[in-house]
Amino acid sequence: MSYVEVPGAQVPIRMWADPASVEDGAMQQLRNVATLPWIKGLAVMPDVHYGKGATVGSVIAMHGAVCPAAVGVDIGCGMSAVKTSLTANDLPGDLSRLRSKIEQAIPVGRGMHDEMVEPRKLHGFPTAGWDDFWGRFDGIADAVRFRQERATKQMGTLGSGNHFCEVCIDTDGAVWLMLHSGSRNIGKELADHHIGVAQGLPHNQGLIDRDLAVFVSGTPQMAAYRNDLFWAQEYAKYNRAIMMGLLKDVVRKEFKKAGVDFEQEISCHHNYVAEERYEGMDLLVTRKGAIRAGSGDYGIIPGSMGTGSYIVKGLGSEKSFNSASHGAGRRMSRNAAKRRFTTRDLEDQTRGVECRKDSGVVDEIPAAYKPIEQVMEQQRDLVEVVAKLKQVVCVKG
Questions:
Q1: A Gene Ontology molecular-function term (predicted)?
Q2: Which is nearest to 183 in space by CA: 261, 100, 242?
Q3: Are β-strands 39-49 and 65-66 bridged in parallel, bridged antiparallel, or unpaired?
Q4: 122-131, 219-228, 275-284, 359-368: least confident range
Q5: CB-CB contact of 157 with 281 (8 Å)
Q6: Is 316 marked as binding a ligand?
Q7: What's the burial of 351, exposed, middle or buried (CB within 10 Å: 0-12/13-18/19+)?
Q8: DSSP classification of residue 230
Q9: Is the separation of the CB atoms in 126 and 208 below 8 Å?
Q10: Measured CA angle at 37 (ends 35, 38), to 5 deg
Q11: pTM for this predicted structure
């Protein structure tokens, strides 16, 4: 489909979703965002759903301002994937050992490494800039600097919720590795700190929703936020790179006889801010639950733990600010999913996938998400599909 335009106070709301299918709370959030004085454009992805302040699945372009709640608390959250030389025929019938080895190598939930992972020992890790990155830790907000030890030990860890590590097979039988995670606790604490600062600023007191508080260019608060935001986005990128290195090492050891080669990694943020230029204006583009899909940009759009994912290439739609959806998007809250579904339902919906099937992940059941095929159909003008993957191993926090 192409987009539908819904009137908004300052800008029209461009929706790659049927407005009638979007819950009232999310539609109200979109209207609220469209009232912001600094806004220059709002694009809504097909996986749109209710979030904090701004919906998940929205792209907000502002001039001279940025809204920290519109980035989300998991700054830099995103996806990485890599195609391997293995095929489905190389995989054993019982994948429980492989899942166990992945869980041993990559801490999940609130877990962390005993010591900081030394990235230079990992296969293909991009070490350029690593020392400089940690050297800038002393420049982030005082309020979270005491978390340095935790931040170093959580580097290369998965977290919980909808974060995952997967082994997938594409339609040609090739094996892929894929993972989803962000900036862990340090990113959340930085986000919470700056959202609190923004809400106390005088220019935000008359806003329709206090969660839409912004920082304005040329102020010390904006400078501090941008510093910490971009550092946390980098943390998330390194976090995924280290996990992918650990995942590759597991696969290389488990399939030593076959010998494994890896293609170029694909990696993309889907909760972040970028400086981009549209219609002659320098804008701060916030993607919250959306990936960049500029012409030729590779991206990853996952479904759920039982349905599979897509590797895509952007078509460069300026109307969407060169963006596409970040996944299928939830169609019910975590609490609603827990009330509605049982572990038996989870077992049925994840049949054929080596994964957790206990009550702790019922809120991640595929039925709690929108159908990924429908989401992909709604954004045919934003991305083209390069590969369709189906997971056979899924590790959750």
A1: GTP binding
A2: 242
A3: unpaired
A4: 122-131
A5: no
A6: no
A7: exposed
A8: H
A9: no
A10: 115
A11: 0.96
DSSP states of 5-59 as a string? EE--SSS-EEESS-GGGS-HHHHHHHHHHTT-TTEEEEEEEEEEE--SSS-EEEE
Residues 6 or more apart in contact with residue 191 via CB below 8 angstroms: 68, 71, 72, 73, 74, 75, 232
Task: Write down the pLDDT at residue 1.
Answer: 58
166 is in an annotated binding site: yes
Distances from the Cα of 81 to the Cα of 84, 128, 175, 228, angstroms: 10, 20, 11, 26
Structural domains of the chain, ranges and CATH numbers in brackets: 4-331+369-396 (3.90.1860.10)
**269 in a labelled binding site:** no
Report pLDDT digits (tens) over 138-151: 999 999 999 999 99
Indicate the helix (H) or strand (E) that contains 109.
Answer: none
Residue 309, annotated as binding a ligand: yes
Residue 258: its pLDDT value, please?
Answer: 85
Q: Are 338 and 360 in contact (CB under 8 A)?
A: no
Which of the four pLDDT bands, split at 50, 70 and 90, describes residue 35? very high
131: Cβ contacts below 8 Å, ≥ 6 apart: none
Which two tokens mark 262? 């890896």
What integer is the mean pLDDT of 167-190? 98
| Continuous H helices in 42-180 | 96-105, 130-135, 148-154
Task: Convert the pLDDT of each residue in 105-144 to its tens digit.
Answer: 999 999 999 999 999 888 777 778 999 999 999 999 999 9
Answer yes or no: 326 catalytic. yes
